[in-house]
Amino acid sequence: MNSAFNRRGFLKKSSLAALTAALGSNIVFAGKMPKGYIPLLLDEKDALKGKSPEMIVQGDKPWNVETPVHLLDDRITPVEKMFIRNNGLIPEKIDVSNWTLTIDGESIKTKKTYTLEELKKRFKHYTYQLVLECGGNGRSGFQPQTSGNQWGQGAVHCAEWTGVRLKDVLADAGIKDDAVYIGYHGKDIHLSRDPKKESISRGVPMAKALENETLLAFQLNGKDIPEFHGYPLRLVIGGWPASVSGKWISGISVRNKVHDGAKMDGHSYKTPKSPIAPGEDVPQTDEYFRIIESMPVKSLITYPKSGAMIASDIELALRGHAWAGDHAVKKVEVSIDFGTTWKDCKLEAPANRLAWQHWNTKLRFPVKGYYEVWVRATDDKGNAQPMVIPAWNPGGYLNNACERIAVKVS
Ligand SMILES: Nc1nc2c(c(=O)[nH]1)N[C@H]1C(S)=C(S)[C@@H](COP(=O)(O)O)O[C@H]1N2
Ligand SMILES: [Mo]
Fold it and tell me: Which residue owns the Cα nearest ligand 1 atom 9?
C-alpha cells in the first residue's frame, strides 16, 4: 500500500468511495487504476487557485509559476500576481493552532520553542514592503542554457509583510558570541517524500539576520499568508535571493559556522569568484564559488506591455520599478535609440528600506515605426545594469541585463 494513502487517511478505507468523495467526482476508469495509485488531483494542491490567468507555469511538480512583467505594475504586488517558487511539495496538513517555531543551533544559549500565538503576543509587530527576487530570475537569458527554471524576468515581487523581528526573538532566546549564521527549517516535503530530507534549508550571516526588516512574518498584504507563500509563518529577508526567505517555517538554527542545510552546497545560489567562460566546468568548491548575498541593481517596465501600438501624436507614459538589493536606486533612465542616448526618469523614494522604487517618464517618438524602449537603473554605489547578459555562471543566477519592450508607432 502506498504510504501517501496513509497520510491522507485513506489507509484503512482506501476504498473507491473514499477516493471518489475526496475528488468530488466519479473516477470513470477506476477499475483500470494501478493498485495504490494516487489520483493526480489529490497529489498536489492547485497553486493557480487565486492567481491571475495570465501567470506562466514553469512546472507543477514542484510548482513554479512566473509573473509576466506587465502584471507587476502594482506598487504593492497583490497575491494573484506573485510568482511561486517551490523546491518541494507544500505541507499537506497545516495545523495552525499547534504550529511552533523552535530556535536552536550551536550558538543559541538554550533551545526554545514558541507557539505561533506566543510569537504574535510577545513581540512587537512591524510591516515592511520587501523585494523578494529569485536568484535565478532572468535565467533564460543565459547561453548556453543552465539547468533550473527558465525564468524570464517575472520571478520577483514586492509585497507587504507583517510579523515580528527575527532579532527580537533571537534576543529573547539568547545568542552566544560565536554566532555566525542562521539557517531556517520549513515544513514542506522533499520531492522524494523522504521525511528525513529537507527540500531547502538556507540562511544568512548574523548581520543580515539581525536587520530591522528581517521578519518572521504571519501576514501578507494585511491577510494571512496564502498556503503557497508559506502559511502560517515565513521568514522574509528583503534584497537577497528569495531562497533565503524560508516558507512554512518551523525552526531557526543559530550556527557557529556557515549554515550547511539543503541548497547551501554545490553551486546552488553561488557565483564564480572569478569569471569563467560560458559553459566552462569549474569544480563546485569554495575555492571557486561564493554565496550570493545582496542582489544586483535591476529595473522593469511594467507599463505599457511589450508590443504596445500607439498613435504618433501621443506622448507615451511609461512606468515601472527599480531595486538594488541592500542598496537604494539612484537613477533610472530610458533609451529609444538602442542605448545611444538616455533620458532621466522620475524616481520615487522606496516605501521603506529594501522595497522597490517606482519610476515614470513620458516619451515622444520622432517618426512612425518600430521602437524599443530600454530601461537602465543605477544604484547608489554607481553600479548600472549591463545592456547585455552579464557574466555567465553555471547556476544561471543574477541576470540583471536591461529590460526592453517593443513599441509600434503608427
Ligand atoms: N520552505 C521553503 N521555503 C522557500 C522555498 C521552498 O521551496 N521551500 N523556495 C525558496 C525560493 S528558491 C524562492 S525564490 C522563494 C519564492 O517565494 P514565493 O513562492 O512566495 O514567491 O521562496 C523560498 N523559500
Ligand atoms: Mo529562488
Answer: 86
* DSSP state string for 153-196: S--EEEEEEEEEEHHHHHHHH-B-TT--EEEEEE--B-TT--TT
pLDDT tens digits, 113-123: 999 999 999 99
Is there an atom of ligand 1 within 6 Å of 395 CB? no
CA 319 to chain centre: 22
Ligand 1 touching residue 186 (CB < 6 A): yes
Q: DSSP string spanning 89-100? A: BPPS---GGG-E
Residues 6+ apart with CB under 8 A from 32: none
So what's the pLDDT on residue 4?
A: 39
Q: Is 231 in the pocket of ligand 1 (CB under 6 A)?
A: no
The architecture of the domain spanning 79-291 is Alpha-Beta Complex (3.90)
Q: Quick one: pLDDT at residue 24?
A: 78
Determine whether the shortest distance from the Cβ of 321 to ligand 1 is under 6 A.
Answer: no
Q: Where are the alpha helices (DSSP H) in 2-157?
A: 3-7, 16-23, 40-43, 116-122
At the topology level of CATH, where does 298-409 sit?
Answer: Immunoglobulin-like (2.60.40)
Ligand 1 in reach of 88 Cβ (< 6 A): yes
What residues in the chain have per-residue pLDDT under 70?
Answer: 1-14, 41-44
DSSP state, residue 109: S
Residue with cell 523522504: 194
Distance CA(114)–CA(122), nearest Å, equals 10
Contact 39, 32 (CB under 8 A): no
How is the chain split into domains, by residue range? 1-43, 79-291, 298-409
Which residue lies with its CA nearest to atom 10 of ligand 1?
243
Matching fold, domains 79-291 and 298-409: no
Ion ligand 2 residues within 5 Å by Cβ: 85, 134, 243
